[in-house]
Specification:
Blueprint lengths: L1 E10 L2 E11 L3 E6 L6 H8 L7 E6 L2 E2 L4 H6 L1 E4 L11 H11 L6 H13 L15 H13 L5 E5 L7 H16 L3 E5 L3 H7 L2 E6 L2 E6 L1 H7 L6 H9 L4 H11 L1
Parallel strand pairs: 3-8, 3-9, 6-7, 7-8
Antiparallel strand pairs: 1-2, 1-4, 4-5, 9-10
Bound molecules: adenosine-5'-triphosphate (ATP) and magnesium ion.
The site of magnesium ion has 4 residues, from helix 1.
């Protein structure tokens, strides 16, 4: 379970995350949605112990991130927004290196697990290639393998599906659904509203660091007074494009 309790992050004087509270239950996929710069990555980085909260706290499987971050980290798997990967290792070497860090016992079981995940994500053909040759989507896929290899029960996925082809996205969806059925707690951010709509049990919409709406699609629809698609709900809550400025720009450049 992820319990976020009045988390706030201030950078210099800028409030990136403001009094944020929400909960993600075991067996649930929670989608964090919000405009660019609204505080999604900052929130995730605090949950992972990569950033110190200014105030507030959170618990990961009942481990307080301020007091027991090592225990919390052990149960978490994370795919960052921009994975930093060791370019001079092959995919296979990298995953084995990560497995060693997590102390996953070496042996056939571990190798089978790695192979299986790589097969599923269509990257096994590239497992002996250097990571520097990987495409953007392949880098995200190998990051997902790295995040899953120690069998975490809490997953934090920051724009996992960005740049992933439809087959890869469908595979990821099935993998995440399977993990959810086995009781995993999954927090994901995405700008692909269709993915959020189809995959998430509940959605939290964050704007300027604050949670402005939360619920199932049904509950959000009610809140947004009859707007039917997630795109309409999202735009009605966070503001749509500035048509006047766009018209002005197009007029000027004509
Ligand atoms: N280390 C930092 N120092 C100063 N400001 C930061 C830092 N990290 C993030 N911010 C600011 O905090 C705000 C929230 O950033 P964050 O990366 O959390 O947004 P996001 O919701 O993940 O956006 P996106 O959808 O573009 O990924 C932004 O205004 C960003 O500039
Ligand atoms: Mg982000």
């Amino acid at each position: 379970m992820i319990e976020v309790m009045e988390l706030t992050k201030v950078f210099n004087e800028f409030i990136a995350v403001k009094n944020l509270s929400f909960q993600v239950n075991p067996g649930e996929i929670y989608g964090l949605l919000g405009p660019n710069g609204s505080g999604k990555t900052t929130t995730m980085r605090m949950l992972l112990g990569l950033l110190q909260p200014t105030t507030g706290s959170a618990r990961i499987s009942s481990h307080d991130i301020r007091e027991e971050i090592v225990a919390a980290k052990r149960v978490m798997g994370y795919v960052p927004e921009e994975p930093v990967l060791p370019e001079r290792l092959t995919g296979w070497e990298y995953i084995n290196y990560i497995s060693d860090i997590w102390r996953v016992p070496r042996g056939p079981e571990r190798e089978d697990d790695i192979q299986e995940l790589m097969n599923l994500l269509d990257i096994s053909d590239a497992s002996d290639d250097l990571i520097e040759t990987y495409s953007k989507g392949m880098s995200r896929k190998i990051s997902l393998v790295a995040a899953l290899i120690h069998k975490p029960t809490v997953l934090i996925l920051d724009e996992l599906q960005a740049g992933i082809d439809p087959r890869g996205a469908a595979t990821m969806k099935e993998i995440l659904n399977g993990l959810r059925e086995r009781g995993a707690t999954i927090l994901m951010s995405t700008h692909i509203l269709e993915i959020a709509e189809r995959m998430c049990d509940r959605i939290g919409i964050i704007n300027e660091g604050e949670l402005i709406a939360e619920g199932t699609m049904e509950e959000l629809r009610l809140k947004a007074k009859g707007q039917s698609s997630l795109e309409e709900i999202f735009l009605s809550l966070t503001g749509g494009p500035d048509m006047q400025l766009i018209a002005q720009y197009l007029g000027e450049s004509a």
